[in-house]
Design a protein that fits this description.
Blueprint lengths: L1 H18 L2 H14 L2 H16 L2 H11 L2 H5 L12 H4 L5 H13 L5 H11 L18 H15 L5 H14 L1
Length: 176
Amino acid sequence: PAMKVRALQRESAYRWFGELDPAGRLEFLCGLLDLLNPLELRFAAACLEELARKDQHSLRDAELRANSAAELLNGAAPGAGPGEATAARSDLGDAAVRGRLLVSLALLRSDNREAANALYRTLGPPRDPRGNGAAQAGQAGQAGQELVLLYTMASNHPAFAFHHKQAFRLTLRELR
């Protein structure tokens, strides 16, 4: 009976996790990873590496662009057209811009401080993300969810400096 109860609890936890929005899943996952001991963490990293290997070839070019500070600063984030202006890229009210930034954050290597600084210049303070076109794009709808996901990813990404993460967390708090 105890095994059945545990199995039901596990299934309930999986179902609960699956029903979270993407930002909630990532935030919860980062919290769980913080609870692992070093050996468990290395094992989890090996499992994640194997899962990520499946998409490695299709994401190769986008990953190279996401990890190039020069391309990020020049507006050539993953999926951006050649020569697309940085100012246009930083309009968080534009769904395509948010999408490119989400891809950039997802593919940014954990040790790439230079590219993280370029992304911080796009995402970071002192501006209010809602006042940058996001409010007009439907803050409570998909645009709002994408902004929350964007700032959740940024506030938990290891490539960003502590003070960048703090700034992202403040923005995230304002968005929620």
